[in-house]
Amino acid sequence: MTRQSHKISLPREKWTQGLALALLLLIGGLAIAGPSGLLAWSENLQLLEQRQAHISKLKQERAALANQVALLNPENADPDRVGERLRRDFNVVHEDEVVLILDEE
Fold first, then answer.
1. What is the pLDDT of residues 86-97, one digit of tens each?
2. CA dihedral 99, 101, 102, 105 (to 10 degrees)
3. What is the rounded CA–CA span in Å between residue 12 and residue 82?
4. Is the separation of the CB atoms in 4 and 11 below 8 Å?
C-alpha cells in the first residue's frame, strides 16, 4: 500500500507558505488595529462629532459677525451701532455723558 496523500514538501514551498501566512496576518492586523481599522473607527467618529460641533459654533459666530457687518453698512448704517463703535474705538464721549469703568471679571 502506498500513500498518495502524503507529499514531501520542499523547503522552498514551506518558505512561500510561511511568507503568505505572515502577509495575511499583517493584513488582518492592519484591518483590526491599523490607522483606518476597526479599533480606530470609534475614535474617528468621536473626532468627527467634535469637529462638527466646532463647525456649528464657528457658523454661529460667523452669522453674528455678518449681522454686525450688515448693521455697519455705509449705505444703511444703524446710528446706535455707529455711535457705539465710535465711542469704543476712538474713546470719545459727549460732554453730558458720564463714564463708568467696570472691572472685568
1. 888 888 887 888
2. 140
3. 85
4. no
